[in-house]
Amino acid sequence: TRQDPLDSFVLFSSVASVLGSAGQSNYAAANTFLDALAWYRRGQGQVALSINWGPWSQVGLAAAERQRGERLEHMGMGSIPPEQGLAWLEVLLRSEQSPTQVGIWPFHLRQWYQSHPLATQSPLFSQLEQQENQPEQRHALRTTLQTSDLATLRKILEEHIRAQIALILQTQQEEIGQQTSFKVLGLDSLMALELRNRLENTLGLSFPVTLIWTYPTIQLLTKALAEKIMLVDGIPVEEPETPSQESAELSDLLARIEDLSEEEAEALLMSELTNISERKQD
After folding, report:
1. Is 238 contained in some domain?
2. Domain range for 40
3. Helix (H) and strand (E) counts for the chain?
4. Domain count for the chain
5. How far is CA 187 from each of CA 79, 181, 212, rounded to the nearest angstrom?
6. Residue 2: inside a domain, yes or no?
7. By CB count within 10 A, which of 55, 59, 169, 175 is most buried?
8. Structural Rg of the chain based on CA atoms
9. How far is CA 80 from each of CA 15, 65, 66, 199, 210, rounded to the nearest angstrom?
10. Which has the higher per-residue pLDDT, 117 or 181?
11. CATH assignment at residue 78
12. CB atoms < 10 A from the CB of 124, how many?
């Protein structure tokens, strides 16, 4: 094709040439050759584009071997839906300034660190981490929560959590009860990780892998997240005190005493206090 006036020369490479692939150095090397070919052609003034694709969800090796796809997702690398992959390809082909090499894969950096500790030493990951931690990337949801009172904060959080679960389970939000266990809803370990990742991304906070199973209902999870946001952002919000039954009864009693004589008031007060004391002992 050296002499052919091509509009495009696209190489389907793999993320393996960027991140490596344990036990598959030959596969990583083969895809690295594709990347190098694209750069060589560009150096010769010819068109070329090498795309380092991540796993696709319905086709390819990861889809053919379900356990392989699940293992990658557990480590922090999601799968690309075919329609989304084709949309990205169209964007790249239509671009007037097409790059020589581009990587496309759903990626959760912190989760990848947990399964690949040595990755923290990579210059590539250092740059990604710096970009991820930029102050200007504060999330709109988090900003809204910072200016909300406790009741509003919890309401917004609960609605947000319910919406994320509905997206993961592909169900209606109305079917997700506040106190229904996540296991009863059908959340498995991979879905729980996805929910944790979604909450980290939308709230701009870090949570442990066990977050979802430690707080296994929307009600418990909402309370836990609200407390963390208040702690991290220094929001001085206190729970409103709910009057106890005894204090409410005492207030009612004092209101009635105002219309009584001293003797009647003393007798009534002693009677009511005795009743309250007996209820406490029971």
Report:
1. no
2. 10-106
3. 15, 3
4. 3
5. 18, 9, 10
6. no
7. 55
8. 29
9. 12, 15, 14, 20, 25
10. 181
11. 3.40.50.720
12. 11
